[in-house]
Design a protein that fits this description.
143 residues, mainly alpha, globular, single chain
Length: 143
């Protein structure tokens, strides 16, 4: 399985208070039913109750990314990272935003972090890292 520094499940999940977990679970159910407004309200409750809830911040980022609210998505992904720097998924959100903006420095930075945290489960990060390095004229790294 190899060594991984990062996690695909945030350690902050286990430390969340019961009420925050309940709001997070309600938000996930609402997302499944495509009720993003309800999900947003529940996620806001979850992070209010537990500001270090990395998984809840991640979901807030995803919702905002889907809505095209780039800055709100970026802020939420960064809050997720602040809560748990070894949680891989928020870096994925950040590089997706950077790809849209064609900010190859940021794409390279975020994909390198993902590949350092988990070099096995994120082949798309490897691809975008190569694309970023190609655009940055770092041909050896791109190859």
């Amino acid at each position: 399985l190899g060594n991984r520094e990062g996690n695909t499940i945030s350690a902050t999940n286990a430390m969340a208070p019961k009420d925050a977990k309940k709001s997070y679970d309600k938000a996930r159910e609402a997302r499944k039913k495509k009720k993003n407004e309800d999900a947003e309200k529940e996620l806001a409750k979850a992070v209010e109750l537990y500001p270090k809830y990395a998984a809840a911040w991640l979901e807030i980022g995803k919702i905002n990314e889907e809505k095209g609210n780039v800055e709100q998505a970026r802020t939420a992904y960064n809050k997720s990272i602040e809560a748990d720097a070894k949680y891989v998924y928020p870096y994925e959100g950040l590089y997706r935003l950077a790809v849209r903006e064609r900010n190859w420095d940021l794409v390279a930075q975020h994909t390198e972090r993902i590949l350092k945290l988990d070099p096995f489960d994120f082949p798309q990060a490897m691809f975008y890292n190569a694309v970023a390095n190609l655009n940055l004229q770092k041909l050896e790294a791109a190859e």
